[in-house]
Each structure stands twice: as C-alpha cells, then as structure tokens.
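Collaboration report, partner site 2.

Our partner group contributed sequences for two proteins of shared interest, and the home lab folded both. The records are reproduced in the order in which they were received, starting with the first partner submission.
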Amino acid sequence: MTGEQFLQDARNAHKAGNEKLEADSLKEAAQTGYAPALAELGKAYREGSVVEAEPGKAFELTKEAAEQGYVPAMTDLADMYMRGLGVQKSTAEAAKWSSKASAAGVANAPH
C-alpha cells in the first residue's frame, strides 16, 4: 500500500474510534516517507493522541515533512521552534520556516 492509502486507513480508524489501528496505520504511512503522514504522526506525538507524547520525535517527523515542502508541516515546525517544543527554542529558525510557509501561500503562518 502507498503512504496515502495507509493515511486514509488511519483517518478511517480515527472516525471509527480505533486508536490502535489509527496509530499503526499512521506509523506505516510515515514509514513510506509520505509528507502528510509524517506531519500527521508528528502532530500525534506532539499532542499525545493515539501515541504517547514524544516532543523530540514530533519535531523530527514534522521537520522531515517540512523539508519535503509540505506547507502545513512548515507552519507547525515554525511553531515548534518558537515554543521550543522538541527542539531548542530558536526565533531565527521559527522565522525561517514561517517565511517559507508564507512564501508558499499560507497567510497566517506563525511569526
């Protein structure tokens, strides 16, 4: 299956309230390197939803998705740098990723 298919399975599991299947499908999707899946799994690790909160892992997954050009991950990464979540706080890095997101068309990127 593709990353997109695994991600859809995760979303379907979420709707059905099956957290274990959601987590497993998200992990499978992320293993394919599919940017939306990396970002979504990163968000799960940030929030501690369906997986145990792990800010460092959240940062790495979010960064990988952002580096692929996935705009929602760019805005999340800027926020993580701004707050020092899973990474040392860096307003310079936050501004860099916020600018990249803005350049890609996100009007409300965090500053």
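Second partner submission, folded after the first:
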Amino acid sequence: MTATSLIVFAASLIGLGVGSYLLTGRKSITALIPAFAGALVGIFATVAVLSSGLLRGMAWASAVVALLGVVATSRGLQACIAAVLGKRGVGAAAISKALMCGLCISFVAAVAVQGI
C-alpha cells in the first residue's frame, strides 16, 4: 500500500460525493456523504505523505473508514441488485450508495491482499 493508493481512494470518494450532489440538483446535503468520507481518507493520506513511518497506520485507519462505508451503504447495493433483477426501480441515492459500497469493498480487498 502506498500513499498514492490512499489519495486515489480519497479522490474517488470525493468525486462520487460531489458528482452525486450536483447530479441530483443539489437537493440534499446527504449526497455529499461520500465526499466527507473521502476528505477523512484524504487527511490520512496527507499524514502518510508527510510521515512515511505512519503509512501503515494511515492505511489501516482508511480501511476502517472503508469498512464503515460498506456497512453504511450495503442497502444501496441491495436495491441496485434488486432493480437489475427487475423487482423494482432504483433512485439516485441507491446508485450512489452502491458505487460507494463498491469503492469501499475494493479498497478493503486491496488492503487485505497486500497484508498491511
């Protein structure tokens, strides 16, 4: 795991949050939740860049944020799967949650595979 990985994960979450907020017509601040999580990971990435000895700890802290993200957004993923199976429609919030869940699962998997 490198600090670059943390930066890319943070930027992805921030992009998702800002994109969701703008695409939904700026109706609800809750669309920015992925951006808030990304900002937190961005802080961890900044600390990792400034002090390479803390990279491992910052990667684990980012993994905890990602695990919380998976728990918080798993219902959105379930809603999207149900929509694909033709059981019901899906809204923008569920799509945003599913994307955040996918990003977080990918990051946690990367951290686990690299054995940090």
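Feedback sent to the partner group on the second submission included the following. The radius of gyration is 15 Å. The longest helix spans residues 55-84.
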